[in-house]
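Record 1 of the preview.
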Amino acid sequence: MYEVTIKRTFSAAHSLKEIGGKCEKLHGHNFTVEVSVATDQLNREGLVVDFRVLKDWTDQAIKELDHKYLNEIAVFQGMNPSSENIANYIFNRLSAKVAAPDIRVTRVTVWESETAKVSYTGPGHD
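->
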């Protein structure tokens, strides 16, 4: 299997309800997002996917989050806009963009600080 990974960043604010502690108050992060896409067979150009294409797909997904108060975005209504839910949201957005049946998003990792990250790999991943 071949896997490529790109990294992008965005800034946003959120508050996490019912978890206790200072994160319940409005605060922000400079998030770093890593997106991995994989395939068993390279395309005719010898690539998994062009890095520019993967970066563009990711930029489109995070544009909706960048410099926003995440609690006010419709996709996070009724749930905490946690790093876990952000990773899930980006994973699903990118999975919908992948048109080739032999390419799949394998992992989305969201770093909310230099020492704290979460990864989402999608359903059925062992």
